[in-house]
Amino acid sequence: MYYGFIVKLPATSLLHHKIDNKHNTRPMENLPFYQEINNEAEIFEHAWRNKLPLLLKGPTGCGKSRFVEFMAGKLNRKLVTISCHEETSSTDLIGRFIIKGAETVWVDGPMTTAVKEGAILYLDELAEARPDVIVAIHSLTDHRRELFIDKLGETIKANPNFMLVASFNPGYQKGFKELKPSTRQRFIALSFQYPEAKTETNILEKESGIDHSNAKKIVAIGNKIRNLTELGLAETVSTRLLVDASVLIHSGLAKRQSMHVAVVEPLTDDEHTTTSLKDLCDLMI
Ligand code: ADP
User: Fold this and answer.
1) String of DSSP letters for 189-246
2) CATH number for the domain including 22?
3) Atom of ligand 1 nearest to the CA of 67
4) How far apart are the CA of 273 and the centre of ligand 1, in A?
5) What is the pLDDT of residues 192-248, one digit of tens each?
6) Domain encompassing residue 208
């Protein structure tokens, strides 16, 4: 069974503190690097203070998860990330009875733990979740802020610091995995896009240590490929792939080969498209 969740604690955990003013946020130098694009940190903080669930919309690898990690660190909250998948059931997330010796004991799942401890619960790719998971979050996303544990017949109130964040890729498999309007409207929403060239260049430099002139070239290749809509790629080149290429180049792998394995190969299996994209990279790097 697929069980995609990760629990991340900030380096200095202050879970017992109710954080309700700016003085309790962590200094920037201790946080994961995140290049803010459009005032999203302030929006997130207001959503958290006002107990509003937040939906992050945007393509793969454009910085949504990094943003949530950054905000969890900034607000000093534990982060519980669940990668939604069609095999992840609400039981996996809420909890189950297990046999221990001669006894049956209840074990909280990651969602229940997050609700009790006042963590930030990040449901990555919510559209991939099974309907029973969507049903389970409904009462958490409105004024009730509670989780019903059917196996225990219990309803638990969310800790005041609890926040639900979900991500959704609107372009992905268009028309297949959509979020229902009734689910979408439970969240306030922020749109993410691949950053503009100057910002993305800065991200590559910071993330990989690559020099400015190479970072600029890699971003130019990325943008060139993004504009080649006629290639009909299912997904275009993400900031994540450009970072990977930069890391390889910075580590000493030949530039062309780095671009081929980090940018071209992950994008397509079509032989003709692969050849054209490799030629383009060879020309521009
Ligand atoms: P998503 O969750 O949208 O799929 P990620 O948050 O995992 O994407 O981003 C992929 C990578 O891209 C990150 O690990 C980071 O290296 C880089 N990245 C993208 N946007 C930013 C940003 N604004 N600031 C810092 N790094 C970024």
Assistant:
1) EEE--PPPHHHHHHHHHHHH---HHHHHHHHHHHHHHHH-GGG--SS---HHHHHHHH
2) 3.40.50.300
3) 6
4) 26
5) 999 999 999 999 999 999 999 999 999 999 999 999 988 888 889 999 999 999 999
6) 197-284
